[in-house]
Design brief:
- By secondary structure, the protein is an alpha/beta fold.
- It has 3 helices and 4 strands.
- A 4-stranded parallel beta sheet has the order 1-2-3-4, with helices on one face.
- Helix 1 links the parallel strand 1 and strand 2.
- The longest helix has 12 residues.
């Protein structure tokens, strides 16, 4: 199984990459998701794919991400 990071997971290419992971879960494990601003979609993706961590580019939105993912054991960072 390959461990992967999806940079820009909420964008067009990122969502397509996650579709491949969805279709072949025995081949890929998502370790990291990143995005710029789309908190809701990032949280939804994190809850589905259970990465070790997520990174949001907009530091002002980090508290919302942390609040949503901390109970699920997913680390959240900004930068």
């Amino acid at each position: 199984m390959k461990k992967i990071a999806i940079l820009g997971s909420t964008g067009s290419i990122g969502t397509q990459a996650l579709e491949v992971v969805r279709e072949q879960p025995e081949r890929f494990q998502v370790e990291l998701l990143t995005c710029g601003n789309r908190v809701e979609l990032l949280v939804q993706q994190a809850l589905e794919f259970k990465p070790n961590a997520v990174v949001i580019g907009n530091a002002a939105k980090l508290p919302a991400v942390k609040d949503a993912l901390f109970p699920h054991g997913i680390k959240a960072y900004a930068g």
